[in-house]
Amino acid sequence: EGPDITERRKAEEELNTYREKMAQAERLASLGTLSATLAHELTQPLTVIRLSIENSLEDLEPTSCCKAVKDVLKDALNEVVNATSVVDRFRNFARQSSRKNLCETDLGAIADRIIKLLGKTAQRAKMTLHLKGMDKLPPVYSNEKDIEQLFFALTENAIQAANGKKNHRFTISGGVKGKCVELRFADNCSGIAPENLNKIFDPFFTTGSDEGRTGLGLPIVQRIVSGYGGKTRVQSQPGKGTTFYVTLPIHSEIVK
């Protein structure tokens, strides 16, 4: 094999690895979303049942009700407590975030890596990828894999917004705002319809043009950012383009 073919194969393997990581993250995100939904829906009825049994036992205490009835209610109360602990485990799973392998993360180096990784994919979609001011940013304290995932998801999201019929541009830029770094991911594609703008961070939301997509890429981004105490917002003009703004504390404290 010639060096060009070897290099291309290596790049394709690296890209496939990133996509597999993203797919795994999406599977975990879907489980987390399901867990959070179940926990939310079950907490109230379980609380009502528990309080009803506790009140009934309290009301029966001064009466001559037979012991067998009280014992059955106590057994039922124990099972409700067990069920509640299961729900709490679902809730804790949904809240899990990366608390390991925290270090000072070079945002510029990660941006450069992702741009090179997705360069060929962008080229096929008639999109050029650019970096602006990323080499001047201070490092943020984070799990590097989380930040890679964030850059990968937002860059691939922009590439997927390009229709391949005309040339488009995507720029990752950043600056310091107080104690935070603000990252900007801007494209000049067709933009997001106003009626969809407040739905794009909803898990599983996709439009008719998003065939084959899970609708979890942007929720994953939002969960990563909020996990570090940051914020995500979006501005879009139909026909002109979309910009995602990601704010990350330079010295972040992971939100539990």
Tag the structure with descriptive keywords.
5-stranded mixed β-sheet; alpha+beta; 7 strands; single chain
What would you say about this model in short?
With 256 residues, the chain is of the alpha+beta class. The chain has six helices and seven strands.
The proportion of strand residues reads: 15-25%
Give me the Rg, rounded.
24 Å
Strand order across the largest sheet: 2-4-5-7-6
What average pLDDT do the residues reach? 82
End-to-end distance, in Å?
Answer: 50 Å
- Category from helices, strands and their pairing: alpha+beta
Give the helix proportion (percent range): 40-55%
Count all strands and give the number. 7
How would you describe the shape? elongated
Largest sheet: 5 strands, mixed
Query: Number of DSSP helices?
Result: 6
- H/E order of the elements? HHEHHEEHEEHEE
Low-confidence stretches: none
